[in-house]
Write a structure and sequence with these properties.
single chain, alpha/beta, Nucleotidyltransferase, domain 5, 6-stranded mixed β-sheet, 5-stranded mixed β-sheet, 9 helices, globular, binds beta-D-glucopyranose
Length: 282
Amino acid sequence: MSRPSPMSAADSVAAAATAETAGDDRPRMQLGVDVGGTSIKGAIVDLRSGQLAGQTHNVQTPQGATPEQVAALVWQIAAAEGWIDGIGIALPGVISGSRLCHAPNLSGVWERDGALDCLLVSADAAAVLINDADAAGLAELIYGGPQPDADGLTVVLTFGTGIGSALLHNGHLIPNSELGEITSGSGRFEDVASGRAISEHDLTPVQWAERAQPYFDLLETLLNPGRWVLGGGLTENFQQYASRLDLSKPVSVAHLGVHAGIVGAAAAVGRLDSASNQSGRQ
Ligand code: BGC
């Protein structure tokens, strides 16, 4: 097979968002891999239903993981599935050309020019890279039921090792938002109210809500969303956490739960003849 042809996240997102209606001949099964600060999970996804079509592979992310280490683990999952047709890879940072920025849960070397090349070119499969929260948002957009963003702007927040965000509007994903970066007097909300903060500080849902409420208040003032979708680790105990928040707009759990990143990554694999990976902010 020839050298992989990376495509831009924005292009792949647009392609994937229209995939269900385009009637084209792209593969109906796709491999999606979600690289997190704690674990790397991958599975074959049936793009017609958005459901996992096989077992989930789950490996621990090495402490301070380098791109080469992550690439090796991703290709290990691909090899276990015998997969060569293209891989969607969700990453916990902003994809900016050949670098990954704002990825505090990986090592600093991801920010150097060319850091992403090993993920794009070292295997016999073409890869599409997308931010992990954008992948979850894309999954919500495609598989989240009728008109997931019918109420105006939908803000998807994933609470895991960090806080990821995706903005959905009028049938489109607006990529590369980094709403976990917003700070308060106590520091970045991502450090204060993420899934990691919950486990590190053993926060009860009430204690978490005390930390998270100012975050939602601020986002409400800044963005005026019509709906919230919460994903990541919180999905398993969604009611316990969400019911402690005081929100003026509806809040729902991510439709695909903890698999949203895998499904969205798989869905982001569009036409492999697209030629560039130059998306995201610099
Ligand atoms: C990163 C985001 C990512 C989020 C969730 C944050 O630390 O900056 O890009 O989406 O973690 O993994």
